[in-house]
Amino acid sequence: MTLTIAPMEGVVDIYMRDILTRIGGFDLCVSEFVRASQTVYPASTFYKYCPELLSGGRTAAGVPVHVQLMGGNPTLLAENAEFVASLGALGIDLNFGCPAKTVNRRDAGATLLQWPDRLHDIVAAVRKAVPETIPVSAKIRLGFADKTLSLENAQAIESAGASKLTVHARTKLEGYRAPAHWEYLAPIRESLTIPVVANGEIWTKEDFETCKQISGCEHFMVGRGVIARPSLGLEIAGVEAQKFSWKKILLLLLEYRTLIEEMEGTSLRQAGRLKQWIKLIGRTYEESNEFFARIRRIQSPDDINDELLRLSEDLRVRDAIGESDIAPLHASAL
Ligand SMILES: Cc1cc2nc3c(=O)[nH]c(=O)nc-3n(C[C@H](O)[C@H](O)[C@H](O)COP(=O)(O)O)c2cc1C
Prior knowledge:
- This protein has 15 helices and eight strands.
- It is of the alpha/beta class.
- The chain has two domains: 235 residues, Aldolase class I (TIM Barrel); 88 residues, Up-down Bundle (Bacteriocin As-48, Chain A).
């Protein structure tokens, strides 16, 4: 069984990957997508999306980070893949699931699910361009407007040489609306020999178990679920019996803020990311909804920091947990 942290543009960046993989329970991360539209990017672009390339392609906790590419041009994708492989990427993932209109209009993401032969040609070109030791995987949805091509798309990707296929169990038209259609994963898994990774709507250990039973999959990817419930990996692994306390969550938010501050100074972009995390945590922690209501209109990162610190001090987060436990984030200390 493997558990992967989903690529999430604007959410799962180096700081989030660092925090979540130090908490534990995950085997792999995938970077935010890098859209190959016109050129072979310089190294600085790949370092921006996947700074872990500068430290062996792994998070500080040692979990590998594969680099995700997105686009519709096989040659351009192959050239970018070859280059990022030379920078030390431990794996290349190809995004065929992005539903954004601006992306789809530009011949990238989920729109390609309408043409199995194009999926095949992209995967084959990328596979050929990178050394055999570097896995090339793909991530798809069940289809674009409907699910009729789901098997054909999956088989096209396998026959092109992909080593693994992640399936977000919804069509592009279904967007992010629940439910995810896990029942469509079983026939895909049965028709392929490469591993099929189940993705979509796993928010709790119970969801994981139901998805496993319905799909028959052995490999899973979690996105919003782990952002909303950072203990999810440990719960699935049976290390934690229940979700973290709200105080522990505040500690993680403080850690995230500190990491950002140390690495790049606060910026409005990062305040947005912090807010987004606080909002998603509200799916699991009622307290976070109250907190989000308080900060949603605040624009200044410093003011958000102040609110976070005030709340933590009110709750005596550091006293309760112990100052010395802040850095390592070991679940067992909490
Ligand atoms: C904010 C956001 C950003 C995302 N960015 C990416 C991305 O860069 N690449 C990708 O393949 N999928 C991306 N996804 C899709 C997720 O990887 C995942 O397939 C989807 O959220 C379903 O899984 P979940 O229900 O566990 O969240 C994104 C999803 C969200 C909500």
